[in-house]
Amino acid sequence: MPNFNGVWSLTTQLQYAADWPRPTTRSLFFGGVSSGDTRHNVIEYIDINSTGNAADFGDLSSAKRSLMSASSSTRAVAAGGIDSNLLNVMEYVTIASTGNVTDFGDLTLAVYQGTGTGNSTRGLFQLGQSANSIINTIDYISIASTGNSQDFGDLTVARAYGEDSAVSSPTRGVFAGGYYSNALNTIDYVTIGSTGNATDFGDLTVARYGLGGASSSTRGVFGGGDTSGDVMDYITIASTGNASDFGDLLSAARYISGTSNGTRGIYGGGELLSDSSYQNVIQYITIASTGNASDFGNLTAAKGRLTATSGSHGGIS
C-alpha cells in the first residue's frame, strides 16, 4: 500500500486500504487456432479501459486451442484444450506482470471445448468434451492455491463448444448455449461458493454454440455463435428467465472469446460465418446499456477458439 505521509484523512486511508490491491483492468487472451489449423501458444493482453491493439504477454506451455480460463483479481488460470493431444493441464500467470505460464495442476479429465468462469476465490470449468463423449461435468479450483481440480456437480444438459460462453457475478456462475446433438438455447446457473448440480435459468434468444460471454456483477451478455453469429443477448444474473436482445456484433462469427472489466464487455477473434476465415478483431460494448459493438483494436493474429479472462470481470467483488 502507498505511503500516505499524513496527507489523506484517516477515513480515506482506511477506505483505500480496504480496497487494496485494486483489480487490474487488464484482459488476457490465451491460445487459439488460425487458418490451416495453426495453433497458438501466445498469451496477449489489452487494457480494457482504453482501445488499441493487443500486446504480447508470454507463452502457454504448448500451442493449443479450445481451452478455457478463470481468474481472480491477481491470477489467471488456463485449463484443458488440445495441442496434438487432449489436455488436462492447468497453468497460471500473474495478470499484472508479463511472462510464461507456471503449472497449476490437473483437471479431473483431459478435455476441450468447455468454458470457465468464477469469482474472486474460486474458478469453475465446465469440461465440454472428452476423448469419448460430450459431458456435463463442472470442476472447481481455489485460484489462489495450486493443485488438481475437484468435482463441483453437473449441468442440466451435457454440452460442448461452449468455448468461452460462461459469465458470473460474485455469487453465481451462468453457462449458456453449446452443442450436444444440436445447438442449445439452454442457460444454467450454479452458486459458485457451494457445490452441486446446475439449475435451469432460462433460454437464449437463439440456440447456438461457440459464443462468448462478458459480465458485470449484475448483467451477463452473450455474443456471437454458430447460426446467428452477430447476435448479443443479455440476462440479469441474480434473477432467472429468458435472455433479451442486446444488439449486434460487428460481424457474424463463432468461437469468439469474451471477458470484461465489470463495465465494458470485450469480444476477441472468432471464425466468420460468411467464409470460415478467422478474424483478429477485438470489439467492445458497455454492459449496462444496450446497442451494437464498437471496434477496440486487433489481436496479434487472426484466430478463434481462444479464451479470455481479466482481473476485473463481473465475478470479482
Helix content: under 10%
* Tally of alpha and pi helices: 1
Q: Which class do the helix and strand fractions yield?
A: mainly beta
Number of strands: 27
Shape: globular
Radius of gyration: 18 Å
Q: In the residues, how many domains can be counted?
A: 1
Characterise this structure:
With 317 residues, this protein is mainly β. 3% of the residues lie in helices and 44% in strands. It has one helix at residues 10-18, and strands at 26-30, 33-34, 38-47, 55-64, 68-71, 75-79, 87-94, 102-111, 115-118, 122-126, 137-142, 150-154, 167-168, 172-176, 186-191, 199-203, 212-215, 219-223, 231-236, 244-248, 253-254, 257-260, 264-268, 271-272, 281-286, 294-298, 307-310. The strands form seven sheets. Strands 1, 2, 3, 4 and 27 form a five-stranded antiparallel β-sheet that branches. A four-stranded antiparallel β-sheet has the order 5-6-7-8, with no helix packed on it. A four-stranded antiparallel β-sheet has the order 9-10-11-12, with no helix packed on it. Strand 7 and strand 8 form a beta hairpin. The protein is globular, with a radius of gyration of 18 Å.
List the helices and strands and how they pair.
Layout: H1 10-18, E1 26-30, E2 33-34, E3 38-47, E4 55-64, E5 68-71, E6 75-79, E7 87-94, E8 102-111, E9 115-118, E10 122-126, E11 137-142, E12 150-154, E13 167-168, E14 172-176, E15 186-191, E16 199-203, E17 212-215, E18 219-223, E19 231-236, E20 244-248, E21 253-254, E22 257-260, E23 264-268, E24 271-272, E25 281-286, E26 294-298, E27 307-310
Antiparallel strand pairs: 1-3, 1-27, 2-3, 3-4, 5-6, 6-7, 7-8, 9-10, 10-11, 11-12, 13-14, 14-15, 15-16, 17-18, 18-19, 19-20, 21-24, 22-23, 23-25, 25-26
